[in-house]
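Researcher: We're teaching a course module on how sequence relates to structure. For the next exercise, students receive a sequence and then see the predicted structure as tokens, so they can try to spot secondary structure elements on their own. Here is the exercise chain.
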Amino acid sequence: MDTPASQHLLLLRGTDWYKELSPQEIQEVMSRTTAWFDRLSQGGLLVGGQPLENQGKVVSGPSRMVADGPFVEAKESIGGYLLLAVSSLDEAVAIAQDCPMLAYGLTVEVRPVAPECVIQKLAKRQLAEAAA
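Model: And here is the predicted structure for the students to work with:
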């Protein structure tokens, strides 16, 4: 199912990974993380990525209710993301396993980017089957 240019999203989960580290330790981890980003970029694997602020809003339900964030426990909240162009899910997982912040409690969720909305694809297939 993977293609030579498939995209995968790395969701960097955990916004408190640095709390027990000294400023010098944080700087060292961030230097290693920047070097990791640079290697991915220079290798043509990094399409984009950004850190996320620890604030925001959540819009939900039929009434479009708005609530303040952060949205879940700090260990589960998304602190940033990377968008990769790699040949397979396995390659994306291998890149995620090299993340320097993993040693400090950060987790990385690896997700393939769908070429189209999965629900829309399902509806199209069901409509085609019903018409046949």
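Model: If you want an answer key for the exercise: The domain at 6-131 is CATH 3.30.70.1060 (Alpha-Beta Plaits). The longest helix spans residues 23-42.
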